[in-house]
Amino acid sequence: MRFQKYSRRIAVATFTLVTMLASANAQTPAPARPLKSLTVGIGTCVACTMQQAFRYYDEKHQIIQKAGRELGYDLKVRWLEFPTAPEELAAFQSGDVQIGFLATFPLAAQLKRGEPFRILTNNLGYYPWLLMVKKGSGITKLEDLRGKSVGLALGSTAQFAFQNFVYAETGKTVHEAGISLVSQPIPLPTMPRGLAAYVNFSPATLAATENPNSDIEPLFQLAAPPQTGPAYSGPLGKGGGKALPSAQKSPWAPEGFVALRNFFVTRDPFLKEHPDAVKAFVIAHQQAIRALSAMTPTQVAELYPKETWTVMPRKAYEDRAIATDLLYKHRDWVWPGEDSVKILLGESQQMVDIGVLKEPLSVKEVQAAFSAMPILKSAYEATGKYPDTKTFTDSKAADMRGKPVWELDFSAYEKFNVRAGAR
Question: Which of 17, 40, 253, 331 has the lowest tally of Cβ within 10 angstroms?
């Protein structure tokens, strides 16, 4: 009897102890998995408005790092600056940059060479491209550049915009029109020796155009919108602000002789090795652009280092760069869509016309460039599925648009011909 009572007491005590331990274990969370440590080099263009705004927003709020922790990464971000995309390509090759910027023109050339770049998000667009000449040089119309040299960043969108403009105006390549192209990626307040003109984008040219002592001025604005500059004198009249009739025939109308789309891209090996780190970047970019678009241009400019305004006229930058950027004025979202596909295909076809490529990109090559689509769709869903379908396809928007890439049937573009129009 005593043995039975003793046995029961042991059993009850054992049961109670096991129950308490089980309860304690249930209330104790499982230890968190250690975060993967990863350094990511991110390339930006020195004068590229919303790229830089994203950078400075991240440096203040650590938004990429926060998104990374949610997906299992301890991300160390290194922001690197380059004047244009061609200078950045070497950093991709060396491994200094894992995510960087490429506009459609240099990207198309890289894809045609078989380089495994993968498109992530839009980071800017809708920039004025200016053909600058020296004041009093006697160069007042396009024909005056025959036999002369024009400086620009070779292999960049500046080259495409200018060559496409020459082709639309004359039906000739720049070589056939007697114009030589010379490498000059840096906008200067004076005309470099040996050049009759140079091409660059605003805001990069603001320091020159806003300087009363500058001896250069625009002859033409090639996009956003396409029009004459103050140096012009010719069949359209005299002075700036006159619409260019040839631009109406451009497949990129109403944007101009180029519909600038600049993407953040990565390379396929990094995408496959670190898909969640890429997703964290995409999520952070969308969150940052939503936040930046809700600010005034002055508030966005406050994020920039003070030394920026020692070389850049701040008020002009706020009014004519931040306030007019694609990702501020026209969109508060970063997702690439049908417009991006058409621009890549169409620009590559025009690059054949102007003698830059031998063959245009195939639909298969463009589709491969968008192989991050599942990650983009997942990031879109994780950030609240913003914007809605109607916004993506708004036909009244001033910028070209279309369905997000993850909803596209790429086979539908097999017969796409930019000469028949892109909208």
Answer: 17
Residue 80: closest CA among 44, 124, 56, 51: 44
Instruction: Yes or no: say if 190 and 214 are a contact pair by the CB < 8 Å rule.
Output: yes
Cα distance between residue 228 and residue 220, in whole Å: 5
Containing 11, the helix (H) or strand (E) segment is helix 2-27
In eight-state DSSP terms, residue 175 is T
Phi-psi category of residue 323: left, alpha or beta, with phi > 0 → left and psi -120 to 50 → alpha: alpha
pLDDT tens, residue by residue, 230-273: 999 999 999 999 999 999 888 888 889 999 999 999 999 999 99
Q: What proportions of the chain, in percent to the nearest 5, are helix, strand and coil?
A: 45, 20, 35
Across 166-203, b (16+ Cβ under 10 Å) vs e yields bbbbbeeebeebebebeebbebbeebeeebbbbbbbbb
One-letter amino acid of 68: G
Q: Are strands 261-267 and 117-125 parallel, antiparallel or unpaired?
A: antiparallel
* CA pair distance 318, 299, nearest whole angstrom: 9
358 with 346: CB under 8 angstroms?
Answer: no
